[in-house]
Amino acid sequence: VPELPEVELARRVLARELEGARVERVVVADERLDAVALGGLVGTRGVKVERRGKWLRLTFARKRTEVFVFAHLGMSGRWLVADAGAPAARHERVRLEVARARWKTALLYTDVRRFGRVLVAPADFEAWSELGPDPLLEGTDPERLHAALGARRVAIKVALLDQRLLAGVGNIHATEALWRAKIDPRSRADALTLPDVRALVKGIRATLTLGLRSQQGDEPAYVQDGAANRFKVYDRTGPCPRCGTNLVKIVLGGRGTTYCPGCQRRIR
Ligand SMILES: [Zn+2]
């Protein structure tokens, strides 16, 4: 499942291919997407590609008018780079063919499960403007996070998945960050002390940075697709890599969570 590092990888690839390029052709092969609005990109020029949390904002321009496309990878979305005119990829939903000088490329958005989004919307599109700070872009201020968590009467793991609190932390990196911070995922969010939150912020940065560093090439590698599991506890069983106690898997807020009962302290 795409999380912040995979979305950042997509941003880099899209920025490289789109910025300064002219959109020549748009093909939409999904009735849930607005083919007319996306088709309006033909003739525009790619200006910039930004990421905030797990959302991407692609800015295109026609003369002085800007058009914004928001994209979310959902559960299984991928942006692939292909030759212009390449046959449709499996599960291809959107194709943007772009040209820069004599160089032509196709950007293919593929999505097996179709939870992803690609849409044209105003610059301040709600899902984008409501996002909390992005831990890699703005950093995470432990004092601000501690104050925000003080109002949450839910398990810390559940609170971390709220994108208005912090943008980009999903199930995998929340699980990893809590293990790194030695905090039991069932701990009440409002019971964490400032030092707990500092440890957690450090854990979030460490796991996201590792995730980013382990992506190579243009295409993300996912554990569920058979890529090597480079995480400390996510999707693992057996002994904790830190203390040797057997890891436990529970369901919290509807999501699977692995933690170590030996070294992750429950804060009440
Ligand atoms: Zn342990």
State the secondary-structure class: alpha+beta
Share of residues in strands: 25-35%
- What small molecules are bound in this structure? zinc ion
Global geometry: elongated
What is Rg? 20 Å
Instruction: Profile the largest sheet.
Output: 4 strands, antiparallel
**Helicity level, as a percent range?**
25-40%
Intertermini distance: 31 Å
Number of helices: 7
What's this model, at a glance?
The protein has seven helices and ten strands. It is an alpha+beta fold. The longest helix has 20 residues, at 194-213.
Question: Please, could you describe this protein's structure?
Answer:
The structure is a single chain. This protein is α+β, with helices and mostly antiparallel strands and 268 residues long. The protein has 7 helices and 10 strands. It has helices at residues 4-18, 35-39, 126-129, 142-149, 156-160, 171-180, 194-213; strands at residues 22-28, 45-52, 55-62, 65-72, 77-83, 92-100, 103-111, 117-120, 248-252, 255-259. The strands form 3 sheets. It has a 4-stranded antiparallel beta sheet with strand order 1-6-7-5. The two termini are 31 Å apart. The mean pLDDT is 94. Residues 240, 242-243, 245, 260, 262-263 line the site of zinc ion (ZN).
Keywords:
alpha+beta, 4-stranded antiparallel β-sheet, 25% helix, 26% strand, binds zinc ion
Element layout with pairings:
Elements: H1 4-18, E1 22-28, H2 35-39, E2 45-52, E3 55-62, E4 65-72, E5 77-83, E6 92-100, E7 103-111, E8 117-120, H3 126-129, H4 142-149, H5 156-160, H6 171-180, H7 194-213, E9 248-252, E10 255-259
Antiparallel strand pairs: 1-6, 2-3, 3-4, 4-8, 5-7, 6-7, 9-10
The structure holds zinc ion.
Zinc ion binds at residues 240, 242-243, 245, 260, 262-263.
